[in-house]
Amino acid sequence: MATQFDLIVIGAGPGGYVAAIRAAQLGMKVACVEKSRTLGGTCLNVGCIPSKAMLDSSELFHLSKERFAKHGIKFDGLSLDLPAMLARKAEVVKSLTDGVRFLFRKNKIEPVFGAGKITAPDTVQVALNEGGSAELKARNILVATGSEPVALPFLPFDGRVVVDSTGALSFNRVPEHLVVIGAGYIGLELGSVWNRLGSKVTVLEFLPRITPTADQELGEMLRRSLVKQGLEIHLETKVTGATVEGDRAVVKAQGKDGSESTYPCDRVLVAVGRRAYTQGLGLAELGIEVDARTGRVPVDAHFRTKVPSILAIGDAIEGPMLAHKAEDEGIACVELLAGKAGHVNYDTIPGVIYTWPEMAGVGQTEEQLKESGRQYKVGKFPFLANGRAKAMDESEGVVKILADAATDRVLGVHILGPRASEMIAEAVAVMEFAGSAEDIARTCHAHPTLSEATREAALAVDGRAIHS
Questions:
Q1: Which of 12, 76, 117, 401 to pair with 213, CA 20 to 30 A apart?
Q2: pLDDT tens digits for 289-319?
Q3: Which neighbouring-strand residues pair with 311?
Q4: Domain coordinates of the chain in residue numbers?
Q5: According to the CATH classification, is domain 4-148+275-344 in 3.50.50.60?
Q6: Residue-wise over 99-126: b if at least 16 C-beta within 10 A, else e?
Q7: Does residue 3 surpass a pLDDT of 90?
Q8: In CATH terms, are 162-272 and 348-461 the same topology?
Q9: What count of Cα atoms within 13 Å lies in the side-chain half-sphere of residue 438?
Q10: By three-state DSSP, how is residue 27 classified?
Q11: How many C-beta neighbours within 10 Å does residue 320 have?
């Protein structure tokens, strides 16, 4: 194995492996250090990808049980084969992590499997997984180590009864009663999976609303939809303690009015947030400040830390903990190293919650616009009036467009409905080019498609929607 490189990337998740590939494309000699035994990081191995595999499988099971008959599809003896579902999830993960390994070979990137520590501005010491150690040197070192779930001090993860998101993707049976602590995207997505498969799911959220960073109006619509699906959601509820005995747990909580409640269950998912995985990297020893609470490190506009040869991206720095944000930063970072004009527009990073209906948004929410005092117009269009949504029997939800009152420039787009995760890309593209609601309204959209709802919402900004 070579030991001298142009760039060493620590972490092979979406930010790290994408940065490594782009750097190699730009002619750099690259090594990528990964402490796990597979590439792809949390996202591919135990996060985004396996959770979406389980969401899709559980949604098909739910549809077959509840709605296929409406489409004229009838059968007897429907049953759940959870081992087969989990095996399919594992196959999806393996195919994608193998794909990253192929891309490393194609781009001549050196994977180094072990725990890396930065011992000097140009040196990474790796405790190899196979035993022994290796010392790597490079002109630049990129920290792309991602994040890890935050545990509650009185409720540590045991990997069996009390789990993080990784554990909640691999239950060997459907829980009788799953208590989810936290109503962010992880808690709601995984709560949806097990609710569809037959669990009683109780969600406890400290804040007065679910999905606190999303548009409040659509967030409340999603809450009502999830309750209708069977999730029990308690807002303004503070978890104060828990006991675990054998295969059972009792979660204790306090309501806004001070009332105490207990929730006996057989599984607890703690989904209260994530913390940057930067401990043990040697950053503090090199004079790089690490936030004690979040684990994040400050960087400049070129992603450089206080030590110029050490850079950081993704969950290790400020901003939303999203795989696509890390990917964009990884590309921008290495392009800047190569003297190119790398850039990330943080105002156009979309966020998606893969419940059903899905919820996606980009730009500012209505609450943010009100708080800033900016004058704006609103256009909304329900999927109930969209032909394709009706044909799909998926007419729940709405498209909401926020535009500047004076210039008509699109300031935010928020979608609750079928395939919102795919539809949001049009809004991102329009906002990236500083487009207006009129631009969307004047663009021909194929009929019948879900995307017509976006056009109608854009027309509604000016009070001229056709179908509502």
A1: 12
A2: 999 999 999 999 999 999 999 999 999 999 9
A3: 142, 304
A4: 4-148+275-344, 162-272, 348-461
A5: yes
A6: ebbebbeeeebbbbbbbbbbebebbbbb
A7: no
A8: no
A9: 7
A10: coil
A11: 13
Say yes or no to pLDDT of 175 above 70.
Answer: yes
Six-digit token string for 52: 């979406």
Catalytic residues: 447
Q: What is the DSSP letter of 227?
A: H
pTM for the model stands at 0.96
Does residue 1 register a pLDDT over 80? no
Is residue 36 within 8 Å of residue 45, measured between CB atoms?
Answer: yes
What is the average per-residue pLDDT within 201-226? 97
Handedness of CA 387, 455, 412, 274 (dihedral sign): positive
Q: Class for domain 348-461, per CATH?
A: alpha beta
Write 308-312 long-range contacts (CB < 8 A, 24+): 308/121, 309/121, 309/122, 309/139, 309/140, 309/141, 310/118, 310/121, 310/140, 310/141, 310/143, 310/283, 310/286, 311/140, 311/141, 311/142, 311/143, 311/337, 312/142, 312/143, 312/144
Distance CA 229, CA 224 (A): 9
- Give all strands of the β-sheet with 177-181 in edge-to-edge order: 162-163, 267-270, 177-181, 200-204, 232-234
Report helix, strand or coil for 219. helix
Spatial CA neighbour of 24 closest among 95, 128, 111:
111
Res 2: pLDDT? 63
**End-to-end alpha carbon distance in the chain:** 65
Residue 13 DSSP one-character state: S
Helices 185-196, 48-66: axis angle to 10 degrees equals 40
Compute the half-sphere exposure of residue 324: CA atoms within 13 Å on the CB side of its CA.
11
Angstrom CA distances, 84 to 61, 81, 267, 332, 427, stand at 13, 5, 21, 40, 37
Contact between 355 and 226 under an 8 Å Cβ cutoff? The reply is yes
Amino acid code (one letter) for 293: R
| Contact yes or no for 324/390 (Cβ under 8 A) | no
Whether residue 134 has pLDDT greater than 70: yes
Radius of gyration of the chain (CA): 24
Token output for 143: 């920290």
Taking the C-alpha atoms of residue 97 and residue 164, their distance in angstroms, rounded to an integer, is: 22
